[in-house]
Amino acid sequence: MAINFEQIKELLGAITNTDIAEFVLKNSDFELTVRRGNGPIPMAAPSVMAAVPVPDSPKESSIASRQEDYEAVKSPMVGTFYRAPAPDEPPYVEVGDRVRAGQVLCIIEAMKLMNEIEAETPGQVMEILVQNGESVEYGQTLMYIKTS
Questions:
Q1: Which 3-state string (H, E, C) describes the chain?
Q2: What is the rounded distance in angstroms from the CA atom of residue 60 to the CA atom of residue 77?
Q3: Residues 51/117, Cβ–Cβ less than 8 Å
Q4: Residues 85-144: pLDDT tens digits?
Q5: Structural domains in the chain?
């Protein structure tokens, strides 16, 4: 089983949203152990240690720096951002749309699962920072909503 860095990022993003305390993935080439909490961190064999690149900072928004009544909708996981439920369907929301709490704003695909991202508060979509089909990181701002 070959696993790449993107798959590891997706896996970590999916684990972040669970109550899993420890996760171990092993194969003949490597071993990955993820633990939550403040316990001791075991040392890995030098052959499996690798440098993990830090992603560039996400696109900055002019809205974030000047408005206090804007809510940042952040990605709860690593995955792929989709604005619509299917390629041939209209986007869930457009800039300027009014939204209600609980309304679906977009989808994040992680590990072949489609996760609906909902508005936490009612308001108006003011800016969408991510392009359809773009990879997103955990905690990355996806859009801004002016709260009402």
A1: CCCCHHHHHHHHHHHHCCCCCEEEEECCCCEEEEECCCCCCCCCCHHHCCCCCCCCCCCCCCCCCCCCCEEEEECCCCEEEECCCCCCCCCCCCCCCEECCCCEEEEEEECCEEEEEECCCCEEEEEECCCCCCEECCCCEEEEEEEC
A2: 19
A3: no
A4: 999 999 999 999 999 999 999 999 998 899 999 999 999 999 999 999 999 999 999 999
A5: 5-48 (no CATH), 70-147 (2.40.50.100)
